[in-house]
Every structure is written in C-alpha cells, then in structure tokens.
Design goal:
The complex is a heterodimer of chains A (about 170) and B (about 120). Chain A has helices at about 1-25, 55-60, 75-90, 105-115, 130-135, 160-170; strands at about 45, 55, 65-70, 95-100, 120-125, 140-145, 150-155. With about 170 residues, chain A is an alpha/beta fold. Chain A has one domain (about 45-170): 3-Layer(aba) Sandwich (Glutaredoxin), CATH 3.40.30. Chain B has four helices and no strands. Classes of the chains: A alpha/beta (about 170), B mainly alpha (about 120).
C-alpha cells in the first residue's frame, strides 16, 4: 500500500517536472521586463541627411501618430522588416521616423538607396545613447506614438501581425 | 626655481589623474551592478555587446553631468525597470526577497535553541 503511494507520487512528480520543462522550451531565453515608459524622452540628435541638430520636441510636435523605428544597416532583421515599413510609409496618417543606430554613414546611405526610404526624418545615434533614452534594447525596435505618448512597443523585427495591429490603431 | 616649476606641473598632472581615477572607479562600480539585458548572466561591466558599450557611455556622461550613483540607478530603472539592477532596491515588491533569508535564519536558530534546551 505504501509503496503504491510512493509510486504514484513519483509519476505525478515526473509529469509535473516534464510539463514545466516542456513549457520552458517555448519561452524565449531572454527575459524582457515590462517597462512603462509612456513619455517621449527628451534628446538632441542630428538629421541624417543635412546633419542639422534637432530637438525631440520639434520632431514629435503634433498629436498625430508617429512610428519611431530603430534600425541599422548591419542588422539583418532590419532588412526583413524594411519592405513592411515601406508599405506602412505610404499611409498618410502616420509619420515614420528612423533612428540610425551605431552605423557607418556610407553603409546606411547604401541601405537606404538600395531598399528605399520610408522615413520622413532619419535621426543619427552614433553612440547608441539616444536608444538608451528610449529604453531600447537594440536593433530593430519600434515605438508607436500617439498624442505625444508611447502607446505600443515592439522589440525585434516587425511582422505582418504587428503591422496589422498598427494599422488598426491608426484607423 | 625652474626645478620647482617643473615639480609643480608634475604634481598637478598627477592630481588630475587621481580625479579621473575616482570617476572611472565609480563608473566601474555602477556598471558592475547592472545586468546586461541582451546578454543575460553578464554584467554591463563584463559585456562587450553594443548595448553594454552604449550603456557604459551613458553612465560616463551622467557622471560628467554630476549625477550621483543613486540618481543614475533611478534613471535606468525608469527606463528598463528594476530588472536591470543586480542589487534590488527595498520596496513593496522586493521586501519578501530581502526578509526571507532573515526569517529562515531565525527559524533555524529557533530550532537549534529548542534542541539545546531539551538536552
């Protein structure tokens, strides 16, 4: 009788461990904490094209929708999401702003001429410090802004689903 | 006279060096207490990822802007959440974490005390 209970307990324990580990297989091995930054950080940056200094307040001056996309020419997933951004850029209700993260100027220029430019303004972040002001992890990363607040954040490349979601917001 | 002048210049240079050394020490101390968020298991100090390199630069800039250590932690937790700190601050989310070892210690102590009294 006693050995039976031990036997069942052992099986239950084994199943429990199996389920926990099996579920863990699907989890990303990088934990991303939920941060609730809602306000657009204040920063100064240079325009990619004419190198003029820009203030964050002047860039996000309207209550409209903005999409800040952190990209780089050396980042492979950025190439994957780029066609989606170009499609989204055709939508007049949203303004796309690029933040060129730790890039070589000529490579970035080449990237833009080769794959197209969906952005209305491209900002330079040569040292990666502006991305940190945004609480970003790296490239690519995207922030949806409405009424001067960050309403949605996408870590990693955008996909069709996230684009649909953005389009739902700006309807 | 000339010798004294040289001596003073050398002394000044060495003193400036010390000032800088303090700054670097603080910078290292802070970056050792920060978790590199994209290469978890490493501190920002140890990591050479793009994220960590930028973060080290941000810390340096903040020190130059006369931010204190506490203010820098506060600034970063605002951006990345408490998770970035290796040394979690004492608040209502973490008080269990801080008090639990103490409780276990007291519990163990109580058991030992009881056993000794019995004998």
């Amino acid at each position: 009788m006693k050995s039976n209970i031990v036997y069942y307990l052992f099986i239950v324990f084994f199943i429990f461990v199996f389920v926990v580990f099996f579920k863990g297989l699907n989890d990303s091995n990088i934990y991303t904490p939920k941060t609730e930054i809602k306000i657009i950080p204040e920063f100064k940056s240079k325009n990619f094209i004419n190198k003029k200094e820009l203030n964050s307040k002047d860039i996000f001056s309207n209550e409209n929708f903005y999409l800040l996309n952190i990209w780089s020419s050396w980042c492979i997933p950025c190439k994957d999401e780029h066609p989606l951004l170009i499609d989204l850029g055709k939508n007049e209700k949203i303004e796309l702003i690029g933040l060129n993260y730790k890039d070589n100027f000529y490579n970035a220029q080449k990237f833009i001429t080769e794959y197209g430019n969906p952005y209305s303004i491209i900002l330079l972040d040569e040292k990666g410090t502006i991305a940190i002001e945004w609480g970003a992890f790296g490239v690519p990363e995207t922030f949806l802004i409405h009424e001067k607040k960050i309403i949605k954040r996408y870590i990693g490349p955008l996909n069709k689903e996230s684009i649909n979601e953005i389009e739902k917001y700006i309807k | 006279m000339k010798f004294i002048n040289y001596f003073l210049v050398i002394l000044l240079v060495f003193n400036l060096n010390l000032l800088k050394a303090d700054e670097i020490k603080l910078q290292n101390k802070i970056s050792k207490n920060l978790r590199c968020l994209i290469c978890q298991g490493q501190s920002v100090y140890d990591s050479d990822s793009e994220f960590a390199i930028s973060l080290k630069l941000v810390i340096k800039n903040k020190i130059d802007e006369n931010f204190t250590e506490e203010q820098i932690y506060k600034f970063l937790t605002k951006k990345y959440g408490e998770w970035i700190l290796y040394d979690p601050q004492f608040n209502k989310n973490t008080y269990f974490l801080w008090i639990l070892p103490l409780l276990i210690f007291l519990f163990g102590g109580a058991i030992i005390f009881k056993k000794i009294n019995k004998h």
